[in-house]
Structure formats: structure tokens, C-alpha cells
Amino acid sequence: MPHYFTNSEREGQILKLIAALEELTACLNKTGLYQAELIQYQTAIEQAQHLLSAGFSQAELGNLNRQVPNLFWLHREWSPPLEKNPDGPGFRESEWFKLLEPLEQNVVSAAAVLRQVGEY
Fold this sequence. Notes:
Elements: E1 3-4, H1 7-31, H2 35-54, H3 58-67, E2 82-84, E3 91-93, H4 95-113, E4 118-119
Antiparallel strand pairs: 1-4, 2-3
Helix pairs in contact: 1-2, 1-4, 2-3
């Protein structure tokens, strides 16, 4: 039997997205990386806050999901950015990537829930 999300559950999902976006935007502000996407994330925060105060439809939640950009297009043939290992030969994942990737995944996961009508 499917479970359709209630307005209360949706509000919690929007709040979770806002928190994830705020954590990511704080990190982007600190690092100075991905400034074009930073603006899009800030706009998504504003839109999410507006939906919380004004109410929302499923179409608006889907639109909010589409407004949230992906920083990294992860797929099985993709590899993370590498930098020369300062401790010796070879390469390692970039420190900035290790910092940003989990934050970005939290945002992507929180946004993806908004396009779902419920759980099956």
C-alpha cells in the first residue's frame, strides 16, 4: 500500500533541503569555488522558504527540485578530480572535492525527495 506524503512531511522535507543547502552554500562561500552554482543554491533556498510560508503544490515542489544544480555528474565512468600527492609519488582526490562531495550529495538527495509523490 503506497504512502502519500502529508503537508507536514513535505514541510519537513523542505526544511531538510534548506539545511543541506545552507551547509553547502556556507562551504562554497568559504572556499570560493562554484560561484555560479552558489547563486543558484541561494535562489533555491529563497524559493524553498517562500514555499514554506505561502504553501505549495506538487508542481512547485518538482520545480524546486529542478532548480537545484548538481556540482558533480557522478556516473560509473567518472573519476574525481585528482591532485599531485604532496607526500610522495602519485595522485589523490582533491581535498576540496572530499569536502564538497558529501555536502552536495545531501542536497541532491533532499531535493530528489520533492519530486516523489510518496513511498511505495
